[in-house]
Design brief:
Trna Endonuclease, Chain: A, domain 1, six-stranded mixed sheet, 16 helices
């Protein structure tokens, strides 16, 4: 490939990843326009039923007949009695809401909106989950899992397990704290049994688009098990990314168990090698993220105390409950002492 194209495999993979990202962004924009048109119709129908003061008791027969007549004219629109009542509920839930919330629910798929109405009472929570769904392309199942994991509350706690403020310039540290979170939802992997670190990595690689969406905007995937050679020794970074706005390399190390202090020393070494061997002159220093099943903030704080490289520690959440995951991880570790 390098001989045919005149560029390295890594450079080509970066171009390919960015091209795919642009196609997917365009597809999401088109889907949002379609959803917006559908929601507009549903909103108007819900408004009509609400203003006619129909209820499932008083207006049950009216809505049943309305459904029959509308389906005969518009069979593809999903105008069942249940759905018509949901449209009324949709309108009454949000008609007094602010413009930000209305703009978000207007572009969500109808199934996502029904889930949000069924599971959430707070408009603030709806805004959070709707925004996450739109920016990350969550399916309905992924949205459901995020709500079950209460990712909203975890983001609100906003405890940062990193040393960015001590190792990066002020504006850069602020932006890095906005980019990197304390928890990531990897429910899209569908993991329901014990996994080793390499298998977890391979599953992420196979669904790299989903992982990049979960990381957030601006990430480009460079490679996994990225090889670094120095002083006749080889080192391998689990996953290497580049963040366009931060203008730096981002190394991610995956751990199936709880955080351990020795992980910081290893990441510190990788970042030193990346800055020495890979970082361009116009780029900022590399950032490392240790992604593990769980971590204690105080343990991380002590481990990072005298480290001069920017390192953060974050938890990941899988499809299964955290308690069950811990049991599975312990079982796996006991098998592989």
């Amino acid at each position: 490939m390098r001989k045919e194209l005149g560029i390295t495999k890594e450079q080509y993979n970066t171009i390919l990843t960015q091209a795919k990202e642009q196609i997917l962004i365009s597809r999401r924009i088109i889907a949002q326009h379609i959803n917006s048109n559908v929601q507009s119709v549903y909103w108007k129908l819900g408004q009509l039923l609400s203003e006619k003061q129909l209820s499932e008791g008083y207006g049950g027969g009216v809505v049943q007949q309305l459904s029959t007549d509308l389906k005969a004219e518009f069979p593809e629109m999903g105008l069942s009695p249940r759905n018509l009542w949901n449209m009324k509920r949709f309108y009454e839930r949000y008609f007094q809401a602010g413009p930000k919330l209305l703009q978000l629910v207007a572009v969500l798929p109808w199934g996502h909106n029904l889930l949000l109405m069924d599971k959430l009472n707070s408009h603030e929570m709806v805004i959070y989950y709707a925004n996450e769904t739109i920016t990350k392309g969550w399916s309905r199942d992924m949205l459901h899992q995020a709500i079950k994991m209460d990712s909203y509350s975890q983001v609100k706690k906003n405890i940062k397990s990193n040393n960015f403020e001590l190792t990066l310039q002020n504006t850069h540290a602020t932006f890095a704290n906005e980019v990197f979170r304390s928890s990531y939802n990897l429910g899209f992997l569908g993991i329901t049994e014990p996994v080793k670190e390499l298998e977890l990595e391979n599953r992420l690689i196979s669904k790299i688009r989903n992982f990049i969406l979960e990381l957030g905007k601006g990430f480009s995937f460079i490679g996994n098990q990225y090889r670094l050679e120095y002083n006749a020794k080889e080192y391998f970074v689990d996953m290497l990314f580049y963040h366009r706005k931060l203008q730096c390399l981002v190394a991610i190390e995956l751990k199936i168990g709880s955080f351990k202090a020795e992980y910081v020393g290893k990441m510190n070494l990788y970042l030193s090698l990346l800055d020495k061997l890979e970082k361009a002159e116009n780029e900022n220093q590399s950032i490392g993220i240790i992604l593990c099943a769980e971590h204690d903030h105080l343990d991380v704080e002590i481990a990072l105390q005298d480290i001069n490289k920017p390192i953060g520690v974050a938890e990941y959440q899988l499809l299964i409950p955290k308690e069950k995951l811990q049991t599975l991880v312990l079982s796996e570790l006991n098998k592989n002492p």
